[in-house]
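Subject: mismatched residue count in predicted assembly?

I count 795 residues in my input, but I want to confirm that the predicted structure covers every chain. Input:
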Amino acid sequence: MSEQAITLTPQQLIRKRAAGEPVEAGAAPDIQQHIINVLLENSMGALIRVVNMFSARGFNLDSVTVGVTEDPTVSRLCIVTRGNVRVISQILRQLNRLVDTIEVDDVTGTDFVERELCIIKVRCRGEKRAEVLQVNEIFRGRVVDVTPDILALEIVGPTQKVDAFVNLMKPHGIDEVARSGRVAMQRAPQPADGGSD
Amino acid sequence: MSSASTAAALAEPQARLRGKAAVQQHIGKRMSGAEIFLRALEAEDARVVFGHPGGAVIHVYDEMARVQPNFKHVLVRHEQGGTHAAEGYAKATGEVGTVLVTSGPGATNTVTGIADAFMDSVPIVVFTGQVPLPLIGNDAFQETDTLGVTRSITKHNYLVRAPEDIPRIVHEAYHLARTGRPGPVVVDLPKDVLMSEGVFAYDDAIRMRGYSVPHECDEVRLRRAVRMIESAQRPLLYVGGGAINANACEALTEFARHLNVPVTTSLHGLGAFPENDPLSLGMLGMHGTWWANQAVQHADLIIAVGARFDDRVTGMVDRWAPHAAIIHIEIDKSCISKNIYADLAFNADAKPVLEALRPLVRARKVKRWHNKIQGWREECPLSYADDGELRPQFVLERLRAKTGGDAVVVTDVGQNQMWAAQYMNYTQPRSHITSGGLGTMGFSLPAALGAGLGLRAYGIDKTVISINGDGGFMMNAQELAVAAAHGVPLKVVIMNNNFLGMVRQWQELFHENRFSHTDLTDTNPDFVQLARASRCAAFRAERTDQVDGVIEKAWAVDDRPAVMEFRVVKEEMVFPMVPVGKSSDEMITSKHAPETFV
Ligand SMILES: Cc1ncc(C[n+]2csc(CCOP(=O)(O)OP(=O)(O)O)c2C)c(N)n1
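Triage response: the counts match. Full output below for your records.
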């Protein structure tokens, strides 16, 4: 390892840095999560082509959400994936290469709003129930179903918030969890002059 | 120069105009989906269709007999042969190759050829029959999910749902296959769509909002390129098949000569730059020349043109070209910085970039660099034993003497392919056709058939030579009779070493001479008899002094294929060689052999 570090040429160092590979011995590779929005032809097979590309090329796919946009011929995908710089740029290029993709947008690092919806069934009765409802209140969740043993709650928010809620429910006994996967959208740019017009 | 003439002549959109004119008379008429399909092929100026009938496309064949469309249909004897023939047609002419097959087994038989075209960026459109729309998904007779099967090996694929959609989809399919980085497109045609009626319409416009051909060639990039080139001491051009696809060979040749920069090509780049030019270093990579690989390892600037840094080119990526900054001119953005980081990239067609760059850069004075390369050239020239035994390299040298480089050479896969790359000396674009990316044995014969018919369809008179190993020849030998039936005077070479030679070579080098299942002595047919039974002329040479005689006899045949079997020695190996997992510094040559390979 260290021997290699000594023999790397300047050009090899440039290449390693550009790929997000560790240059110093022992350093961890720089792997990051990315959120990519894709506008796609709303046609047969288009979604499959996207998903298929991820599996055929061995890319990581953490979640995908899909829905139609205001234009019924266009659907919108939100893809959550991870990799180093080189892998992410490959993913973006391979997405662009598909004939059905109209626009590909990596929103990571930009100012964006992100939401995930989660429905969770928790086992609880009596005192426990009051405790669960209190946490639910704090997270601004909604109760969507009630039985003597079970509360079904709906939480909406950034993935981190949903994660936190699910963790808090664990000690009570989770019966079932359904998560939608993320959707994300870039915020409109703030007017530069302070907003008066 | 005649070198770029074929490619350039065919690149003109003349052909498409011809197609459009041919179908004017049918616009607005009611006809069957099958006839609409035939008219749509005419509109694309598909001059040869390689096909095989079956139930799902029987109506297309019926209409073909009835309306006599203006293209030539060639009945291949296996659908895989059809796809390779279409590839050969496309590679030799620069136009899109066309295949028509039935559903189920017809479609699955095309898969190897489609995958081959995908890897090698060959523009072909494959039309597959499909069961009627209402039966799709019901496991109907001869139903295969053709879209699913071909999804990851096509540039795009379509299922047609109405007869009126046929002309638009066919038009898009040819457009996609031909433009940008070329590649295969599959169009699935359900039987009921072909049987029902519709009105034939034709619209030249392409409306695909998700598809465009990139052209990143701005002032900033050009200026940076000029600075990089003018400050380089040891520049090198590395050229791939993309330069040929882009018809950029003339521009490339002028660029290289203007700059005085040496040129090495990948397997698919052979012919993009004349190998008889002193600036040519021949092929690089696993079986490339010693001097080309040395030049790569010492270069301080590599200008890659239409090339994708394949692992057969780079060997171990981490140690490839350790001193070189990279300028990458490439139409497919996903190939840029995929294997080797590009310091500067032009995501564009090679031709306009080279043409824009040339007047901006001054010629390089790099005499020391040329001298250094000359040293490597003399240190380790290509060579083989001259002991009177019949060796494949000798045969190739005699063929080269016969053609003077004015022929289209279509090779198979294995040792024959590498020797043909090393010894034939390519001076013209589209004069070398091979299966590089997928490495498909059985490619050569059908691809040569397609090349021969394609050249004929465009009125170009060129000898087509098919070079085969005895193993690969047997994989599509059925197409020999097709070439005979159409009077295509292919010169078919079989380098018979009675072995799966390339595998044998690896077994000898890396597996302690355990020749597991590579000896073909007991299963090879008598090739001369096989060829004659397929209505071809056939000759055999077993000694060096018979080679020229056999070649002369074969060249005298002009109405059908002439098969030449050369009984070559089985122990011959392809050198030099970069073993898998090694870097380009670690070539095995007669002079530079590491002690252990494994
Ligand atoms: C369809 C297919 N199967 C297997 C291989 C693996 N393979 C590569 S080269 C080779 C040997 C080819 O032998 P032959 O056709 O006699 O040619 P030679 O190497 O002797 O010139 C084989 C089996 C392949 N490339 N393609």
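The radius of gyration of chain A is 22 Å. Marking this ticket as 'not a bug'.
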